Amino acid sequence: xxxxxxxxxxxxxxxxxxxxxxxxxxxxxxxxxxxxxxxxxxxxxxxxxxxxxxxxxxxxxxxxxxxxxxxxxxxxxxxxxxxxxxxxxxxxxxxxxxxxxxxxxxxxxxxxxxxxxxxxxxxxxxxxxxxxxxxxxxxxxxxxxxxxxxxxxxxxxxxxxxxxxxxxxxxxxxxxxxxxxx
Length: 182
Ligand code: HQG
Description:
Elements: H1 3-19, E1 34-35, H2 36-45, H3 52-61, E2 67-69, E3 75-78, E4 100-105, H4 109-115, E5 117-118, E6 125-127, H5 131-139, E7 144-149, H6 151-156, E8 161-163, E9 169-171, E10 173-174, E11 179-181
Antiparallel strand pairs: 1-3, 2-3, 4-7, 5-10, 6-9, 7-11, 8-9
Helix pairs in contact: 1-3
The protein binds ligand HQG.
Residues 14, 64, 66, 81, 104-105, 108, 111-112, 115, 117-118, 120-122, 126, 137, 141, 168 line the site of ligand HQG.
């Protein structure tokens, strides 16, 4: 299996485990878990050939550790990034560091300056501790710009923060007065 195959499988997994499980007739539980055999069977019906070995390699080689396998090796899930309403992953609340970063594209700045950071289709606003990740994330949508979020001050004022298994930070909404342009 080459890196192109792995990349394609990773994108397909992100699609069905975060956004459209119903596209292959897959059920996710509220914590996002999908039965691996059902996933493989559902994917095959839509022409995506997966097997356990490929899934395990995708999970272990994911640069952002996007996926997790259950302890009994029967289930797989995305650890963050969901938009599907069937999932309501119960993240553990955590005190954030003083600052977190959000990567976006310059074309979104005007709207962000009016509304703050909103989750959009996903369940949360995604933030990272390091700037490099934020630059890469912003790059996906255009000319990247990194916003610095006063996370600890938000937390002290009652906003909830969560950290996913892969260290991505999540929160519901970031009002404009906590956002600074780097
Ligand atoms: C922007 C990737 C206009 C926001 C990454 C972003 C992340 C606004 C876009 C994860 C806005 C949403 C999530 C507002 C926010 N007006 N635009 N008020 N507020 N936006 O993809 O954070 O590689 O849903 O800045 O690493 O880019 O897929 O969110 O540009 O962790 O594993 O609206 O996805 O992970 O885009 O990315 P997204 P995101 P993976």
